[in-house]
Structures are given as C-alpha cells and as structure tokens.
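Worked problem 6 (solution included).
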Amino acid sequence: MAKQHSHPHTSSFSTMWIHLQKKQKLVLILVAFLSISTVIVLLMRASSSSSSCFDRIVDRRDKVTRSSSSSSSSSSSSPSSSPLSFMKSKLVLLVSHELSLSGGPLLLMELAFLLRGVGADVVWITFQKPPGAEEVVYSLENKMLDRGVQVFSAKGQKAIDTALKADLVVLNTAVAGKWLDAVLKDDVPRVLPKVLWWIHEMRGHYFKLDFVKHLPYVAGAMIDSHTTAEYWKNRTKERLGIKMPDTFVVHLGNSKDLMEVAENSVAKRVLREHVREALGVRNDDLLFAIINSVSRGKGQDLFLRSFHESLQIIKEKKHQVPPMHAVVVGSDMSAQTKFETELRNFVIEKKIQDRVHFINKTLTVAPYLASIDVLVQNSQTRGECFGRITIEAMAFQLPVLGTAAGGTMEIVVNETTGLLHPVGKDGVIPLARNIVKLATHVERRLTMGKKGYGRVKERFLEYHMAERIAFVLKEVLKKAKNHT
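Solution. The predicted structure is:
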C-alpha cells in the first residue's frame, strides 16, 4: 500500500497512543484496538511525518429467521455457548477474491476467527493479489496465522485437495467465482454442492456470467441485506437468465471488542479528547462525520455540499449553535484521485477549510466514533449493501443521517434512530436541513442516539450475527450431506 500522508489538521496518532498508554485504566482500549472484528493492521512508518493507518470494515446484515434478540453480547465467545459450536473439527475452506483492507475480505476474516474460536479447521486462499499491496497482504496473512487460520496458495494441487476434502467452501464476493474454473476445472461439480456463496456487491458490473455462472448450483447464497438479495434475484433472472440458489439474508453485528469501548464512558472521553485535540476542534464543537473510502459512490461530494448549505441556513436563520465541522474519514491523497481533488477544491472554493477535516483511511473507527456527534451515511444509487459503520455508530449512541436506499433502510428507523434523505442531488437540501435539525435540537440528537444503541443491543451484536450465520451453515451442511 502506498504511504499515506496526514491531513494538515491531523497530528500523528502515535502521539495519541503514547497518551493513551499512560492511562492505566484504559488497557481495554488497547485490547479493543487489536480486536478480531476490526482486524486492525497498524501500518506505521518509522518516520514521524507518517500517520498510523487505522482501517475499517464495512457492511453486513440479518437473516431470514429472527434470532432471539434477548441474547447479550456477553453470551459468549466460549465454544460451549457459541451458536457455531457445531462447527468444531469441521474443515472449512474460505476463498477470497483478494486480501485487502476492503469490506469483503475483512468480513471473511472475521468469519474465519469466529470459526477458529469454536475449534473449526480453517483454510484461507486468496485468488488474486493486487500489485503493490505486499505490506497489507503480509500483515493480514500473519494476523490469520496467529489465530490458527492456515493460509494456502489459491492455485495448485493443495488448493484442489482442500476443496475436495472440506466440509464447507465459502466463496466471498461475486468475483471469487472465477476461482472455480481457473483452479478446480474438472472438479467443479464435486465441490459446488458444499459451496456457500457470500455476496456483498450491489454494483452492476459484478453481474457477469463468467463470475456467477455456477451460482444456481451451489448449496446456498448468503447476502447482507434484503434489498441486495432482491436485487440479485431480479438481476440474475432478467440480465443473465439464471436462477439464484437458496438465499439467506444475514444482517451483521458489532464485535464484543467494539461494544466494550462503546460502553466504556472513560474510554470514550479520553478518545474524544485526543482525537479532537488532534483535529484542532473544541470539545463543544459539533462534528458531522462520513466514514467510508472516498469515492463518488459513497457521496462525500454531496455531503460536503449539504454541509455548506447547512452553514448557510444557520447563518440566514440566525440559529445559535456551536461551531460545526465536517469530518471525512477515508481519504487517500497518495492515490491522487480526481474525485478527492474535487472534494478539496470545493472546500477551498467555499472557504470552509477551517470547518472540514480529511482523515486517512483507517481500520480503527472507534476513536472517530467516540469523538463525533453525528454519523452521515451518504452512499448513492442503490445505497449500501448493509453499511456496518451504521451499526457501529449506533453502538456509540450516535444518530445517523442516511440515504433512503439499500441496507441503511433496514438499520435506521427514520425519525427514531436517525433521519433519512433521498439519494442524488435531490438529497442535498434535505440532508442540509437534517443537519440543521440535529445541530439545533440537542435533546433530539441525544434521544435518537440512545434509541439507536437500544436497537443495536436488540439485534446487531456479534452473538446475533453468529446465530444467523449458524442457521445458514447448518442448512448448507445438511444439503451437502444429502447430496453426498
């Protein structure tokens, strides 16, 4: 991965770590920052000019049957009480199209660790490795090896033998389908009956017959939201003339480690103080943040336009509110993208440089969730497949301003845990007005945050997710056994 450069407002987070380590009561934070579910990779450079790269996971969702929501996050990681305990000693092959800091691979890694936690034998293979990502691949592979996940080459006899012996094969994302013919070749029909295909994509360019021609013949598909599942069902039938297999909708859940930080008031206060100090904002300032990789599909441009409009509304109506700031987490100036340049030029053009802060891509979202006041989920077109950052923000008792599209509508209860606005340019003014609503009504903001936290505790915890995935795995194993 290319070396990332700090935003001018952002001092090195290594300084923040030194301060945190001096707080003996906050050992919890250090543990949480090494959490399994966020798979933190500290891509630190030795030079003082570089910033730590904290990166995150994105997205996941619910399941067909509604699991008992009374289970708490403390109900456990021990194999005896885990919903996945029946996977003990099972051989599971996980096939990822790539190994990177993007949502799909990191979600599959999380599943790998959940299965290892109950004693399953887990093998990971990566079908394609993008050039220039050696540092990331090395770090993530070592993270898996440390947890007992075996890492094999995607090609060769060892991969074929493992696929044939495995009790379960999980293909991650539509692109992973290319691995079947490229590697298994004549053995594809023997493996398909025990394949679970985990799909996270909403974008049209993934609908290629070369990727998904085997989809109708696998044991099942697991998709992160009902909206995405319906989209795949219709699109495969209309565009490709193929039928989806048995499809399970699995909503994601927050890890226990993230929940521990979210529920620790001392940890949150310290993180808030240090991040705000690094950004150069005061404790009483209002921070609205969008936390996604910077791209047009995630809507950072429309968010900044809305933020600028909200400042104009407040000025015109003479509202008395604390200074407001927009935080864009997911920046990468080293990539030199035209879109990111557009964002920064807009900020300069509107003279709001002192109000907008760009933060490098990061795996670790906890510091930012502890330091902001409102999360903006502004994904465009069909929206997010799920939007895991949404449930992570709700765990930190933050209200969510989201687009009325995709999985966000299955998470955010409009007017209760947040406010929804349309996608596209039509959403710019409604989002601006929603920003003003939450900026001018402190009690409403806090109440929405509390209700969002309650919704997370009801249905978006790691245990809930494990129950939903367990249901799917049992069905797939049953089908595989019957086929044999």
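Discussion: Residues 177 and 265 are 45 Å apart (CA to CA).
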